[in-house]
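Exercise 7.
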Amino acid sequence: MGKTLTLLLMDPPFESANTTTAFRILDAALRKGYTVNVFAYEGAVNLTMRGQQPHANPAHGTSVAEEHHPLTRDIVAGLFAEAQGERLRWINCGLCVDERGAGDWIDGPQRGGPADFWRWVNESEQMLVIPCR
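Solution. The predicted structure, written as tokens, is:
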């Protein structure tokens, strides 16, 4: 088994470049053969929400198709496909899910808690926290 990287994400979708940076790190690690653990905490539990919808941009006068707005749920689904379901493990913090009503997510992520993150940190070669600020 290769090396393992564990990330803790905290930002909700579309709020900060931190999420884009995290996705790039995840993609690079998967491409290099790492097993990647993602613990989505606080607003990051919304990254995998099934109900995300693309939208038009009235300020730019573009339609939904023209705007081609990326959705984080699709990016995460792509990461799971790249990992072939074996090298990406994603846990949405159950406490955070409950307080946000964010329980309807795409296939792949699991529900867990801070103890799962602690276990992953102890099992990983590297750990990275991407905070809100």
